[in-house]
Design brief:
five-stranded antiparallel β-sheet, 8 helices, CNF1/YfiH-like putative cysteine hydrolases, 24% helix, 13 strands, binds zinc ion, 261 residues, alpha+beta
């Protein structure tokens, strides 16, 4: 990923998504916490959200967020949703972990402390979607739902899409118990490829699981950028595994620039 500092804030971006002219996006880094509801410095979260919107040239007023309930549902943003979740999850778009928009100047924000965040965009009909793919969301097909919903609501062709997977718990560190693997095996056809056994530990490779899901949904493998940055061992990111319940949240911002008239 490309790292840029903007005074007090350092942001990362995906190389492949920078090539899409109307797309704006950023992944945040510590020490800022972007979750108003939780973690160290949460009282400053709205201030930092506004700051990142300013850096991206997006209107903070329209910032919209899904509630994020460790599910796999994705909705396409409607006009009445705009601005929901801007100041916190209490009025975020309910029951969903992902949102899609084709409206310019409506930035989306999605939060993570180890869970992969998956971005998909369609360069042909400007639209972008994001989903929070926790292990539960991953096994329930969150990334696949995102692609399917973009096809349904924007008419996007998966073969033309670009996708990216954010910094998140990597296969180097993300140890899980036997029940997680048992459940994943009932849901994921490629479960064998998604678990690594190492010195008695079982590691869940969420990056591979989500990438394979995007490929199965029709996104070309070489159009998927995996950040390959692990939030548990890379201290630029917040980690629930490393820091416990009081951890803050890393954010991914995405939006569509208004097209020149
Ligand atoms: Zn790691």
């Amino acid at each position: 990923m490309i790292e840029r500092s903007h005074g007090d804030v350092t942001l990362l971006s995906f190389e492949s998504l920078e090539a899409v002219p109307w797309l704006v996006h950023a992944v945040t880094t510590r020490p800022q916490n972007y979750a108003p509801h939780q973690g160290t410095g949460c009282e400053e979260a709205v201030h930092w959200r506004r700051r990142v919107c300013d850096i991206l040239g997006m209107p903070f007023e329209s910032l919209t967020s899904p509630e994020q309930v460790h599910g796999a549902d994705v909705l396409t943003l409607e006009r009445d949703d705009i601005g929901h979740g801007r100041d916190g999850r209490q009025d975020a778009v309910r029951f969903v972990d992902g949102l899609i928009t084709d409206k310019p100047n409506v930035p989306l924000i999605i939060l993570s402390a180890d869970c992969p965040l998956v971005v998909v965009c369609d360069p042909d009909r400007p639209s972008v979607g994001v989903v929070h793919a926790s292990w539960r969301g991953t096994v329930a097909g969150a990334a696949q739902n995102l692609v399917r919903q973009m096809l349904q609501s924007c008419g996007s062709d998966p073969a033309r899409m670009r996708a990216a997977i954010s910094p998140s718990a990597g296969p180097c560190c993300y140890e899980v118990g036997p029940h997680v693997r048992r459940i994943a095996r009932t849901r994921l056809a490629d479960a064998r490829e998604c678990f690594v056994e190492e010195g008695g530990r079982v590691l869940f490779d969420l990056w591979t699981a989500n990438r394979n899901q995007l490929v199965a949904a029709g996104v070309p493998r070489d159009a998927i950028e995996v950040a390959r940055l692990c939030s548990i061992c890379d201290r630029r990111f917040w980690s629930h595994r490393r820091d416990g319940a009081q951890t803050g949240r890393t954010a991914l911002f995405v939006g569509l620039r208004g097209r020149p008239t």
